[in-house]
Amino acid sequence: MSASNVTSSHPVAFLLVGIPGLEHLHIWISIPFCFTYTLALLGNCTLLFIIRADAALHEPMYLFLAMLATIDLVLSSTTLPKILSIFWFREREINFYACLIQMFFLHSFSIMESAVLLAMAFDRYVAICKPLHYTTVLTRPLIVKIGVAAVTRAVTLMTPLPFLLRRFHYCRGPVISHCYCEHMAVVRLACGDTRFNNIYGIAVAVFIVVLDLLFVILSYVFILRAVLQLASREARYKAFGTCVSHIGAILAFYTPVVISSVLHRVARQAAPHVHILLAVFYLLFPPMINPIIYGVKTKQIRDHVLSLFQRKDV
Which pairs with CB-CB distance under 8 Å and at least 24 residues apart come from 3-6? Predict the structure, then answer.
């Protein structure tokens, strides 16, 4: 089926370029991509297995971590298999509706990850600032409600996108200068008035990043104040040590977002592949690094991983 065939208003399929300007390096670029994706799969599946197998880890902190691992698995698997097929087999064609579905999952699960990181900040706030109320505040029903709220918010915000894109006529051709179906990359191919799409996309991104990050920072202001009021240095170190993994996950998720936003405004003349590589880094890095951070810094998970290797040695 040719990507240039059109229905009444949209192409039957789009063609994904990959990384424009670096097509000759696709095979080499695929090596770190594939390695990172493999680490993400192994790390997050291991986390989910350990949390599910050990009843002692069925606590709020680890349940939120299981949510994060599940989201990271979906987020990376939504794009990386297709990207690798472009790099390895030059399978650039993607069905129009498959493109919209990929976009929906990609952006929805990014919003869910932001919500779960915020929930984990709330978990640390209650654990450190209100330790006596931890078990009564963060109950299993509340955790379920937080998870449902995260999914509902993401789905509600992202559901309009596929319908908005479906109504356009794509007169600028079917070639997407990207390695996955990113919202604005698809909008650039559309004819007609796309201002609402542009404004809606920016508004959702700003709303999510600013609002969630603001509440995360606010949580840590209260946490830091509570930690500094502890009597001994050892108690302060121990209390704040429980937050290190979460801080690492926040930095891994939000740092690429901030860098990308700055580059789009400061370095507009930068080569397209710079922005695309950064976008892929944003999708790959958090799913890969989160299991490593929590595996190294969380004693219970670290002990379980070591015990799994020791069994294999025996």
Answer: 3/93, 3/174, 4/173, 4/174, 6/170
Cα dihedral 144, 146, 149, 153, rounded to 10, equals: -140
Least confident of 8-22, 35-49, 57-71, 156-170: 8-22
The β-bridge relationship of strands 93-95 and 175-176 is unpaired
Give the pLDDT band of residue 198 (cuts 50, 70, 90): confident
What does DSSP say about strands 93-95 and 13-16: parallel, antiparallel, or unpaired?
Answer: antiparallel
Residue 87 CA to residue 92 CA, distance in Å, equals 9
- As a residue count, the chain comes to 314
- Single out the residue of 80, 69, 145, 75 nearest to residue 108, CA to CA: 75
Q: Is 50 exceeded by the pLDDT of residue 42?
A: yes
Six-digit token string for 223: 């946490």
**Separation CA 314–CA 275 (nearest Å):** 48
Half-sphere exposure in the Cβ direction for 173 (13 Å, CA):
6
Asked if 40 and 284 touch (Cβ cutoff 8 Å), the reply is yes
Cβ contact 154:109 at 8 Å: yes
Evaluate if pTM is beyond 0.70.
yes
- Rg of the chain in Å (alpha carbons): 21
Would you call 273 helix, strand, or coil by DSSP?
helix
DSSP 95: E
| Alpha-carbon separation of residue 160 from 100, 109, 156 (angstroms) | 11, 15, 8
